[in-house]
Design brief:
Elongation Factor Tu (Ef-tu), domain 3; efflux transmembrane transporter activity; coiled coil; 4 domains; 6-stranded antiparallel β-barrel; 4 helices; Beta-barrel_RND_2; single chain; conserved putative lor/sdh protein from methanococcus maripaludis s2 fold; 22 strands; RND_pump_MFP; about 350 residues
Length: about 350
């Protein structure tokens, strides 16, 4: 009798519990998760190699005197004062001159130039007479020998005169200028000035061997330095060593960096990106919206108020962006915020 009494009561309780459970489940299903979305647009992405290194000047030299003489530091026409550290000089510009009257008289440049002029006139006269049959070939040849000798003597005198001058072999900046008292004698072989050109810089880097077949001369590079956060310099790959180091498993490359404002200085430590390839009009998304799971890499897109799980395949990668080669297309509404708690077919509410 007791069993018959309790059975209807238990059954009613079970029905009530079931109804409550269904209401709870429906409430959870109907709750929309707030998310932010972006419409996918086709963009560009690059395949790059990142490296670091120290930039050096493209040209530098230390000039020494080639003869004895009294030291004379010349005036810089740009500043109106004698040349100083940091001054820009043009190729061929006279920086220092040596004075030595005895040496200058020994060269005898004026006399040799005059002798050359006479020898040229004599040869021209003999050539005219020979053409008319007035002199023999031997006489003409003798005049020609005298002309050649005179030219050699004048050229040698000019070379000896140039040894008294210290000129810039290229356009650059004075980086060292030892102090010598004006008009005091300095010996031959004395270092008197150092120059450096850094409107173009060189960067030597060792890259992993896996890139040796991807790297080509002429490929573009970008160069950054922490002291110049708003300036990116550009350059190109110039030389590539075919040899792989057995110790580091790397190969050496040399890259030229254009430095038009000369803001980057030799000796600075830089970061560089070598651009191996570039793709345009491809699907590119932020890396941080990709979720890794046992099924692979997935993202979520919104369609008709519901989140749809999409498995994607990566192509080229950058620091914060990645190319998607399959799984997404242009104009898909990609979830960029709120994706952490999503499941496939989750109800979503789009917010800004």
């Amino acid at each position: 009798m007791k069993l018959k009494l309790y059975t209807p009561i238990a059954f009613a309780a079970l029905l009530a519990f079931s109804a409550c459970s269904n209401q709870s489940t429906n409430a959870e299903t109907d709750t929309a998760i707030p998310v932010s979305v972006e419409d996918i647009k086709l963009g560009s992405i690059e395949q790059t190699i990142n490296t670091t290194g120290t930039v050096t000047a493209s040209e530098e030299t230390t000039l020494s005197t080639e003869t004895d003489g009294n030291y004379v530091l010349k005036v810089n026409p740009r500043t109106g004062r004698k040349f100083a550290l940091g001054d820009m000089v043009e190729k061929g510009q006279l920086i220092i001159e040596l004075e030595d009257k005895e040496y200058l008289n020994g060269i005898g440049l004026e006399a040799k130039e005059l002798n050359l002029k006479i020898a040229q006139q004599t040869y021209d006269k003999q050539k005219s007479l020979y053409d008319k049959g007035g002199v023999t070939l031997s006489e003409l040849s003798s005049a020609q020998v005298s002309l050649v000798d005179a030219k050699d003597a004048a050229e040698l005198a000019q070379i000896q005169l140039e040894k008294m001058q210290v000129r810039a072999p290229f356009k650059g900046v004075i980086t060292e200028l030892p102090t010598y008292t004006q008009y005091t004698k300095v010996a031959s072989g004395t270092e008197v000035v150092s120059l450096m050109s850094y409107s173009k810089l060189m960067l030597e880097a060792n890259l992993p061997e896996k890139y040796i077949n991807d790297l080509k001369s002429g490929q573009e590079i970008r160069v950054m330095n922490y002291t110049l956060p708003d300036d990116t310099l550009h350059g190109r790959v110039e030389e590539i060593s075919p040899a792989i180091s057995t110790d580091t498993r790397t190969f050496t490359t040399k890259m030229a960096v254009e430095n038009p404002g000369m803001k980057l200085r030799p000796g600075m430590y830089v970061q560089a990106e070598v651009i191996l390839d570039r793709k345009d009009s491809v699907v590119v998304i932020p890396k941080d919206v990709v979720v890794s799971s046992r099924r692979g890499k997935i993202v979520y897109v919104v369609s008709k108020g519901t989140a749809e799980e999409k498995q994607v395949t990566f192509g080229y990668e950058e620091d914060d962006r990645v190319e998607i080669t399959s799984g997404l297309k242009a104009n898909d509404r990609l979830v960029v915020k709120g994706f952490e708690t999503l499941r496939n077919r989750s109800k979503v509410k789009i917010i800004k």
